[in-house]
Write a structure and sequence with these properties.
Layout (H helix, E strand, L loop, with lengths): L1 E6 L10 E8 L6 E6 L7 H18 L6 E5 L4 H4 L27 H8 L7 H17 L6 H13 L4 E8 L1 E2 L2 E5 L3 H11 L3 E5 L7 H16 L9 E9 L5 H17 L17 E3 L3 E5 L4 E5 L6 E2 L4 E6 L6 E5 L4 E6 L4 E2 L4 E7 L12
Parallel strand pairs: 3-4, 3-5, 5-9, 7-8, 8-10
Antiparallel strand pairs: 1-2, 2-4, 6-16, 7-9, 11-18, 12-14, 12-17, 13-16, 14-15, 16-18
Helix pairs in contact: 1-8, 3-4, 3-7, 6-8
């Protein structure tokens, strides 16, 4: 293992946030996997999983079983880790500008495409090599004096040429679930089976450039731009929602780390014979079919169903109780599916998303992720 320390643009004199990066295997070896934890810094289960992964990757490296390269960022957001206004951890939004740490990552397809214009041919493998180099160059050219944006630039720079990218998150209260691009449905289903995911949500674009799509969508955009020349979707990037914020245990962290290692083994990053693939706990579903139930008014939230429950269309999921009038507003599902996440708070503001159901009946458009 080799450890790098990357300096982030300082917000003020005397403040010097840094990013720790652990590198395993041979630099430049393929396949390359990049794994980062807690880009939303108050989503802490990934921090624990990263510690287990660090030990396991060291063991595999010492045993000569790392065939590819693995980059591990054990805490992806040192800025958010330090944000505790009035004693409450706020790691999802940058307190400087209110922006989500997992939105507005640099989109590099245009810059990389300009670099390879006129250079691609009919050999898909050669095209992948050229595009990866162009993506690295485009990422290296990024510059920002703003602390949070510089962090995003550096994170994308670490991962942009990877074959596999895992962005470890969690929800408020949730079961294991994943977000990935639709062209990677088979890989997402395989990874979901290893993790025991109860929802695997797919889209070609969710909106506002989250980290995983900043790494994987350039390949889709470049395939469109240079068709009919072959440009495969060469980066499988996935957001891993490690259940809920309170789901931190050594047993779960060990289980999740082993599932990640097993997927890397199945992809050739790690040597050895893969174990049989477990039966999946769900089928992949479109992110556009995910149904958010929202509060119609301010009030107290009473849930009737829990994460992991299978919900039928028309079924009562929650109530919002108006404390001025005493009126109970029932919230019913429009489509059948798994309730895969819900809010941890029980006070709702008007329009607040209270829970999410992985259904197939809806076809939402626009920005598909929460703020």
């Amino acid at each position: 293992m080799h450890t790098d320390t990357l300096t982030i643009a300082p917000p003020a004199p005397g403040h010097h946030p840094v990013l720790t990066v652990h590198r395993f295997g041979t630099p430049g070896a393929r396949p390359k996997a990049t794994i980062q934890a807690a880009l939303h810094a108050d989503e802490v289960p990934g921090l624990l999983v990263a510690q287990v992964l660090k030990r396991e990757l060291q063991r595999l490296e010492e045993a000569g079983l790392l065939q590819g390269e693995v980059v591990l960022v054990p805490y992806a957001n040192p800025i958010g880790l330090a944000q505790h206004p009035l004693g409450l951890h706020q790691g999802r939004f940058d307190l400087g500008d209110g922006l989500n740490f997992n939105r507005f990552h640099p989109e590099l397809a245009q810059a990389a495409g300009d670099r390879v214009q006129g250079r691609l041919g009919t050999d898909a493998t050669a095209n992948v090599v050229l595009i990866r180099q162009a993506l690295r160059e485009a990422a290296a050219a990024l510059h920002s004096l703003q602390t949070a944006q510089d962090l995003k630039h550096k994170l994308v720079g670490l991962a942009i040429d990877s074959d596999i990218v895992f962005d470890l998150h969690c929800d408020n209260q949730a079961v294991m679930h994943l977000y990935a691009l639709t062209p990677h449905a088979d890989l997402a289903g395989e990874f979901g089976a290893l993790l025991g995911a109860q929802a695997v949500l797919l889209a070609t674009e969710s909106g506002d450039s989250p980290f995983d799509e900043a790494c994987s969508r350039p390949w889709l955009l470049l395939a469109e731009r240079f068709a009919p020349l072959p440009v495969p979707p060469a980066c499988f990037s996935v957001t891993v929602e490690l259940r809920g914020e309170a789901d931190t245990s050594h047993a779960l962290a060990q289980q999740d780390a082993q599932a990640i290692v097993e997927f890397l083994r199945r992809r050739g990053v790690v040597g050895g014979t893969p174990a049989p693939l477990p039966l999946p706990k769900c089928q992949t579903t479109p992110l556009a079919g995910s149904e958010p139930l929202t509060a119609p008014c301010a009030g107290v939230v009473v849930f009737h169903r829990d994460p992991g429950d299978h919900i039928l269309a028309g079924e009562l999921v929650a109530d919002v109780v108006d404390i001025d009038t005493g009126t109970v507003h029932p919230l019913r599902a429009q489509s059948s599916g798994v309730l895969y996440a819900r809010t941890a708070t029980r006070w709702a503001t008007p329009g607040k998303r209270l829970c999410k159901i992985a259904g197939t009946a809806l076809a939402r458009t626009g920005k598909l992720l929460s703020a």
